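Re: the 301-residue chain
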Amino acid sequence: MTTTGSRPASPTHPSPPGEIATVTVRGARIRVRTSGDPAAPPVLLLHGIGRSLEDWDTQHERLSDTYRVISTDLAGFGLSDRLPGPATLEQLADGAVAVLDAIGEHRPVHLMGNSLGGAVSMLVLTRAPERVATLTLVAAAGFGSEVTVALRVLGIPFVGARLLTRIDRAAARRTERAIFLDDAFVTDERIAFALEVAGRADQAGVFADIAKELGTVRGVRPQWRARLLADVARHPRPTLVVWGERDIILPPEHLRAALKAIPHARSHVFARCGHMPQIERADAFADLARTFLRDAEQSGT
C-alpha cells in the first residue's frame, strides 16, 4: 500500500471533453458522456449513491488522450430516469452494461467505480465477467459495515424517502462538505447541481430503495457484502483499490478488508483527501490509474 500527499486539484476546471448524450434502456432515458478515440481501450466510470456522471469530469479531462472514456448516470440517479421495476444493485449493474450496449461498446472495459459505483462495478464483474478487463475501486462500498450516519438514516423504511424530498440548500451544502476534505471544492455550482438532482421525481425513491438494500440504521448489511466478495473472488481481475485518508463517508479502514478479500489488488491512500480522490487529487489519481492500466495491458489482461 502506498500513500501520497500531493497538492490537491483546483476546485474549478474547464468543461470536460466529449459530449453528453441520452440513450434509451428499457424505456428509460440514461445520460452518458463519451470522450477520446472510439478505437482506444474503453474505460467506464461509475459514480456513488445520489450522485451523477459529473463526479468523473476531471478524469475525462485527463484520460481521454489515451482511452475511450465513458461515464454514465446510474439509472435513476443524476439527471436520468429510473428503470422499470424495483431499484436494486443488480438492476444498476445490468443498466450500466446496457448503456455500453447502447453506445456500441462491447469490448471488455477498464471499470472504475466510486463509493456505491465500486459495489456496482464488482457486481458487473460477477454478472458479466466477459465485459470487465480491470477494476479500480475508489472508496468502494462493500468492504465494511461502517458508514456515515446520514446514509444509515436514509435506509430506514419510509423515513429515508421522506427526508430525501426535503433537501434544501443547507442540506446540500452539508452533503458536499462531508464528501470533500477541502471546503474549496464545495462550490455554489456543485450545490446548485445537487439541488437540481435532488429535485427530480425519480431520485428520492431510487436513493431510498438502494440505501435500504445496502444497510440499516446499524450500518451496511453483511449478507450482500459477503455474497458479493465471494463472487468477485471467483472472477479475478487486475484490481486497484484507493481511498482518501480523511474519508468520513466510508472510512479508509475498509481498505484492509478490501485487501483481505482481493489479496492480489494494488492499493493506494491519498493523504489529506476525502471521499472523492478522483476530484480532490485529480492529477495524482489519473497518474496512478494510467500506471495501473498500462501495467495490466502489458501483462496481457
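The chain has one domain: 2-147+221-298.
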